[in-house]
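Lab notebook page, bench 4
Experiment: in silico fold of construct C2
Operator: M.H.
Input chain length: 113 residues
Purpose: comparison with the prior construct
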Amino acid sequence: MSDCLFCKIVQKEVPSEIIYEDDQVIAFKDISPVAPVHVLIVPKKHIPDLTSVEPEDANLMGHIVMTAKNLAIKLGVDESGFRLINNCKQHGGQVIYHIHFHLIGGRQLSNKC
């Protein structure tokens, strides 16, 4: 996936402000944050979108959710609340076709979809 921006971030070919990394995921600050806390959680495995997740990716998806929980605690939004968002494909607003989740919080978020 040589043209995939998130693959390049995983490979450290493109700089980012990494706040967490392990053998399965990397998390970094969004370059255009919509709230005081706006972090992207990206699996190191290239998966284009949520509809491309396979049964063998179930543990990875669970790991992403647990990473989001732990980052919410680390970033101080676990008590006040946050959103974990995945945009899937064109109508879902996906821009980069490498599955990723936005952890957003730190202020009151709108109830509008």
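Observations: The CA atoms of residues 84 and 103 lie 5 Å apart. The mean pLDDT is 96.
Next step: discuss at group meeting.
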